[in-house]
Design brief:
Chain lengths: ~110, ~120
């Protein structure tokens, strides 16, 4: 069974740049997986940040960007702010109408 | 403005069927440019994609492999909503259930409902 991997936690200082990754337990992530990224605050539904690898959803600040880095999808936050402290999830399209979420990364900004 | 609202029983007994409805406003369940998904979230399993339906002259369905034998998603065009039925539930099915909408070709879940907590317990 395919597992989508994310760092369980990450810490960044305000103003710094952080890159969260999204990989596969077997194989490489590429654009054919149409990676998307979501931000979730406690008690709220996830909010779409990035879709189809690198397209920012409407209203998302341009400090959030998506890419493929090596064999993983990546979400980069350039100049992290305090209110970026959230859980971040990636999801990959596995083909045949099937999506799989990663386990999420808890980002701390301090 | 698109809005999605999940509704259904908050408590279901083990072995029974979990049934939820997602009411849509601001779009049509029969839209040729939309894809409608169910996703759930629990502390033990995280976010889990469950399945989708969409209309392109016919209705199309896809389900997560691990749940396909127990799950059905159906459209209700008269009420402009879609539903989720999950049979033979166990406490492992306790979760917040979200309905979402994606744009055709976005491969993502652009709009989310607020979610409905369903607890499986006797």
């Amino acid at each position: 069974q395919t597992v989508v991997t994310q760092e369980p936690s990450f810490s960044v200082s305000p103003g710094e740049t952080v890159t969260l990754t999204c990989g596969l337990s077997s194989g490489s992530v590429s654009t054919i997986h149409h990676p998307s990224w979501y931000q979730q605050s406690p008690g709220q539904p996830p909010r779409t940040l990035i879709y189809t690898t690198n397209i920012r959803s409407s209203g998302v600040p341009d400090r959030f960007s998506g890419s493929i880095v090596g064999n993983k999808a990546a979400l980069t936050i350039t100049g992290a702010q305090a209110d970026d402290e959230s859980d971040y999830y990636c999801v990959l399209y596995m083909g045949s109408g099937i999506w799989v979420f990663g386990g999420g990364t808890k980002l701390t900004v301090l | 403005q698109l809005q999605l609202r999940e509704s259904g029983p908050g408590l279901v007994k083990p072995s029974q069927t979990l049934s939820l409805t997602c009411a849509i406003s601001g779009d049509s369940v029969s839209s040729n440019s939309a894809v409608w998904h169910w996703i759930r979230q629990s502390p033990s399993r995280g976010l889990e994609w469950l399945g989708r339906i969409y209309y392109r002259s016919n209705w199309y369905y896809n389900y997560a492999v691990s749940l396909s034998s127990r799950m059905t998603i159906n459209p209700d065009t008269s009420m402009n909503q879609f539903s989720l039925d999950l049979d033979s539930v166990t406490p492992e099915d306790t979760a917040v259930y979200f309905c979402t909408r994606g744009d055709a070709g976005s491969w993502a879940f652009g709009y989310w409902g607020q979610g409905a907590l369903v607890t499986v317990s006797s």
